[in-house]
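Ops channel
N.P.: pipeline sanity check, posting one input/output pair.
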């Protein structure tokens, strides 16, 4: 199994915890300051993948080599069970989960500004600068129906091989290039080639403009939950953040995220609990309170519903698995 970023296993499901703020803008930078580009790879034959709602400034090119997936991008649902590439532009709110047990998902995440040349030329003016300003965007998908798919896949796989051969793998599973300038040059050239293939295919698009009010509202709510999950949260508190009445807000949130506000908050808190159970030895009661649960009975019920076991049993099973 190859780890992808940082994943928590919960009841047969891996939960993405890439940053300390899953569900909104990632604080984590991808790559290094001098080379803001990173590669991730996750495949597993026993557990499903789940990447929670989040967004980042960088562009992400995802290769779904095999498996069946459900996606949500800017509140629009998608599904695929074919080999394809998925493109996530800067600022797009997205989530992903595997439907099939067998899957293989890879991702190259990079800042478009790394591609700009020192001497400003027509390539900068017409392609790279608009891309860095999010005025030129990637298509949503590229699959095998496109005659450009084989060339794109070959170039992408070459980039992944360079990362795998020369990378420094962080504790999160992120693969980065530090002082290997030749490998960085090859990666940069490869990304430019990927863009060239898409331009030749006529698939790059002019940005439709600023994001919709709906997406901005959801980002505001998810950010608020992340910042205040340890406190008592009421639906009224959430609704007031975007000036909605409670009844309309609940319908709006459920349509957007697929869960009620309370279910989302509980799930978010439970993921925090699981992280603390796996990484520390604090008593369960202390963990429960630290993550915003004030009713131990309700917490135990929700935890068992999510994982199929009690918190203490979960910790023992996790430690046993880890030792194996």
């Amino acid at each position: 199994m190859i780890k992808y970023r940082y994943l928590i296993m919960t009841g047969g499901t891996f939960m993405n915890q890439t940053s300390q703020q899953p569900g909104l803008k990632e604080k984590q930078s991808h790559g290094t300051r001098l080379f803001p580009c990173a590669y991730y790879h996750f495949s597993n034959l026993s557990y499903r993948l789940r990447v929670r709602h989040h967004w980042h400034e960088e562009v992400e090119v995802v290769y779904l080599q095999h498996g069946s997936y459900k996606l949500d991008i800017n509140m629009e649902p998608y599904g695929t069970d074919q080999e394809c590439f998925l493109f996530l532009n800067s600022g797009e709110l997205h989530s992903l989960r595997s439907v099939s047990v067998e899957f293989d998902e890879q991702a190259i995440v990079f800042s478009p500004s790394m591609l700009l040349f020192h001497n400003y030329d027509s390539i900068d003016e017409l392609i790279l600068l608009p891309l860095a300003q999010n005025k030129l965007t990637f298509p949503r998908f590229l699959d095998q129906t496109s005659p450009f798919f084989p060339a794109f896949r070959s170039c992408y796989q070459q980039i992944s091989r360079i990362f795998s051969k020369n990378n420094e793998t962080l504790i999160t599973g992120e693969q980065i290039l530090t002082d290997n300038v030749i490998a960085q040059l090859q990666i940069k050239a490869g990304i430019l080639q990927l863009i060239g293939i898409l331009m030749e295919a006529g698939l790059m698009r002019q940005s439709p403009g600023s994001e919709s009010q709906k997406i901005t509202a959801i980002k505001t709510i998810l950010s608020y939950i992340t910042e205040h999950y340890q406190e008592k949260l009421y639906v009224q508190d959430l609704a007031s953040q975007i000036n909605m009445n409670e009844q309309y807000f609940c319908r709006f949130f459920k349509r957007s995220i697929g869960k009620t506000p309370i279910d989302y908050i509980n799930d978010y808190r439970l993921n925090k609990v699981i992280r603390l159970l796996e990484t520390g030895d604090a008593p369960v009661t202390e963990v429960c309170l630290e993550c915003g649960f004030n009713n131990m009975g309700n917490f135990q019920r929700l935890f068992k519903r999510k994982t199929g076991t009690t918190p203490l049993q979960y910790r023992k099973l996790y430690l046993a698995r880890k030792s194996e």
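N.P.: looks fine end to end. The longest helix spans residues 181-200.
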